[in-house]
Specification:
Order of helices and strands: EHHEEEEHEE
CATH topology of the largest domain: Helix Hairpins
Distance between the termini: 26 Å
Number of domains: 2
CATH superfamily of the largest domain: Transcription elongation factor, GreA/GreB, N-terminal domain
Number of helices: 3
Keywords: DNA-binding, Elongation factor, Protein biosynthesis, Transcription, Transcription regulation
Structural class: alpha/beta
Radius of gyration: 21 Å
Strand order of the largest sheet: 5-4-3-7-6
GO molecular function, one term: translation elongation factor activity
Organism: Ferrimicrobium acidiphilum
InterPro entries: GreA/GreB_C_sf, TF_GreA/GreB_CS, Tscrpt_elong_fac_GreA/B, Tscrpt_elong_fac_GreA/B_C, Tscrpt_elong_fac_GreA/B_fam, Tscrpt_elong_fac_GreA/B_N, Tscrpt_elong_fac_GreA/B_N_sf
CATH class of the largest domain: Mainly Alpha
Strand content: 25-35%
Family: Belongs to the GreA/GreB family.
CATH architecture of the largest domain: Orthogonal Bundle
Low-confidence stretches: none
Length: 157
């Protein structure tokens, strides 16, 4: 199982979401299914099929959250010095032959930050930049070939 690095705030939010889905969410879906059953013929009952579909999606999300929380590694770097790229930070990268830099959050998609793309630490780019310092150039293999990026800045999310 692959570890997922997340902040304490994200961990707490995911635990709360899981709690909500496994309690109130399941009760509401059960009520919706029961109401739809009361309408009659299930083979042509759109409400019933919609409720069952919603139930399937909710149960899939519950399994996803359980797996994510089981493999979660909570990081806290509030007091630590930012001297190199590591999960939980935002890194500004400039591609070779490009004048502009782009910011990426290195971590789980569950920790999206508005305006910043998420890069998994286990992706080729994520693996290449972990441990790099401002000013370092790193290379990684992308589907289109070998790419080279410069670490321009590192900051907390």
């Amino acid at each position: 199982m692959t570890e997922t690095t997340i902040s304490q705030a994200t961990y707490d939010a995911l635990v709360a979401e899981l709690q909500e889905l496994t309690t109130t969410g399941r009760i509401e879906i059960a009520k919706a299914i029961e109401s739809a059953r009361a309408l009659g013929d299930l083979s042509e009952n759109g409400d019933y099929h919609a409720a069952k579909d919603a139930q399937g999606k909710m149960e899939a999300r519950i399994r996803q959250l359980e797996a994510l929380l089981e493999s979660a590694v909570v990081v806290s770097d509030e007091d630590s010095v930012i001297d190199s790229v590591r999960p939980g930070l935002i890194v500004a990268l400039r591609y070779e032959d490009d004048d502009e830099s782009s910011e990426y959050f290195l971590g789980s998609i569950e920790e999206r930050h508005s305006g910043v793309e998420v890069v998994s630490p286990t992706s080729p780019l994520g693996q290449a930049v972990v441990g790099a310092r401002v000013g370092d150039w790193v290379e990684y293999q992308a589907p289109g070939g070998l790419l080279k990026v410069e670490v321009v800045a590192i900051r907390r999310a």
